[in-house]
Amino acid sequence: MTRYDAVEAASYRVAREISLTGLSSWRDVLTPYFLPGRAVLDLGAGTGLFVRAFAEWFPDVSVVAVEPSADMRAASGLPMLAGDACSVPVPDASVDVVWMSTVVHHVRDLAVCGVELRRVLRPGGVVVLRSLFRDRPDGIGLFRFFPEATRALSSFPSVDEVVSGLGFELDRLEAVPQVTALSLAEKASTVRWEADTLLRSLSAEEFARGRERLDAAALVESGPVVDHLDLLVLKTVGAV
Predict the structure, then answer these.
(1) Is residue 121, in this structure, part of any structural domain at all?
(2) In which domain, by residue range, is 129 found?
(3) Prediction pTM value
(4) What is the pLDDT of residue 7?
(5) Domain of 12: which CATH number?
(6) Which of 23, 72, 79, 145 has the greatest number of CB atoms lying within 10 Å of its CB?
(7) Would 187 be classed as within a structural domain?
């Protein structure tokens, strides 16, 4: 999994974290899985956005956060375990839900990760992903201003590659809207090259041109910025 340094971790909090109000649609779609008494593993927890969200949305659920980057763990200010998707530091059959938000494209070996996920899940447990997939790119508004960033999608897995690579069965797939920013001007103020896998594929010149397009549009466009990421729910093979 990708490890962010201290500068990148600080930028990540500015550029990538969204208000809990903006993420409210995610609370709604996760409710059937985050039932009282369940244990959740937040795998690749980053700076802790969803750890904080789950504490507010689902107070009767216990959450264990795992993050490979020491700087991201420090930036979160939250208790997190060091580990990654191919070496998860939790006991066998100890969680009901594995949550992975914008993580799966960083996983270096999906098959090894899948073995680990099956190890840590209890019977009937599910893997719940919030992600962008190579074959479903249409929900990201930044591509309008940074069209060259779409080439970075070649390194992202497709839905089928994730399902088969992890060795699970598809249970649910849908695009979920989120209010990424209250305005395009607010979004423009938070864009950071170093904090986004897609933008990091750009040259300095490509990023500068995209910033110019974004800043110009922000001067004349109003209304919230709504993006869509996919909810992908996986169940173990043969589970009902």
Answers:
(1) yes
(2) 6-138+156-179+226-235
(3) 0.90
(4) 43
(5) 3.40.50.150
(6) 72
(7) no
